[in-house]
Amino acid sequence: MYVGEPSKHAPVHQGNALMDKQLLKAATRGSFEESDSTLKETVSRNRSMVLARTTEGNTCLHISSMYGHERFCDAVLELDESLLTLVNSDGETPLLTAIKSGHASLASSLLRRSKKPGLTDSILRPDNNECNALHHAIRGGHKDLALELIKTKPALSEGVNKFNESPMYLALTRDYKDVFEELFAIPGSAHSGSYSYNVLHAAVKCGNTDIATKIMESRPWLAKEKSDSGCTPMQMAVRWDKAEMLRILLEHDCSLGYVANSKNRPQLVSAAYQGHVSVARELLRHCPDAPYCLANGRTCLHEAIEHGHDEFVEFILGAPQLGKLINMRDREGKTALHYAVRKCNPKVVAALLRKGARIDCSMLDQKGDPAIWELSKVMQHAKTLNWVCMFSVYSTVALLFTSHMIFFLSVIELSKLAHAIYYVS
């Protein structure tokens, strides 16, 4: 327990008299004279009065700091500067109270007074949530005060509060680049954030490529740190479609492209899930053999079709290194064509069939069903589509889809499904 800190097991005013009502009124109004013309003289003769507290452990300096009364604060500090070291029931020094109350000018004045021998430790003292003056200055939007605090006490940069937030992380969330630069230059400065994010997560989120480059050059290990949800900065870039940020991360460490998330979901599959083509293109540029498949056999092509991302499907079909995905099966034996037919997406079916001999339309799933049988499971949906299918003479399938009805005749095989499928809008 710091000197001057109230006990956690006793009333905060124990050992100190309760504050005189007239002094409390003066601190609230910011003037001795408005309360009692003789009060200042009385307090000057009996300086123990100035150390008295409210039941919440606040001194007259705390109260005056809440209101931003700089002249009153100066007056009582002339009587006893040890007031700067005393904390209230929230663990706040008057400096913290002034900052949290939004009085940056007063806080700067208190900071200058705290530089004197015997008082400097009060600058570092955090509140009950382990937030120090720098945390509160940044969070409160007081950028100039934050820079002054860093210059006065660089050790404030090492503080991490109960929510695992460092001042550097907060600076990035507020987009205070100059504050970040000052903190980043301090050896040993903390870089953690809430939810187990770090400053690289924050840089990715705000899209600051210059800062991300600095971090990758000096603290590259942050790229592999996971949040509470198992998300690395790399995976965050994929999720939020930040291709330029992805480029920076991969240029510094291309191995990041091969790391799956906590659910063992590869980056390409995540990109396909959200249809982020630019991210997938950048990933393959650095990692041409990047993982593309879940443990259940579902590929990024399956994923893109399932979630209706036609542009991503076209991208995969045009990527040479992903050509083998066309005929790959998931755990249920279903190919991309099974998925496309089930989704009643003639555009994607046509795109797959344009691959000609490379796509095997005769492939059966684990139940022995060809892709066209997927229609029987979604017939109500299919009735709303306008399809015209033309079949090879070798096929015994004849389907006619109109906007009103479906005629579905016996199905034996789906080999060489069609020479053409046209979508009639």
UniProtKB/TrEMBL annotation:
Transmembrane regions: 385-409
InterPro entries named among the record's database cross-references: Ankyrin_rpt (IPR002110), Ankyrin_rpt-contain_sf (IPR036770), Multifunctional_ANK_Repeat (IPR051165)
Record keywords, A-Z: ANK repeat, Membrane, Repeat, Transmembrane, Transmembrane helix
SMART domains: ANK
Repeat region (ANK), residues: 90-122, 296-317, 332-360
Superkingdom as given in the UniProt entry: Eukaryota
UniProt feature coiled coil, ranges: none
The name this protein goes by in its record: Uncharacterized protein
Species annotation: Oryza glumipatula
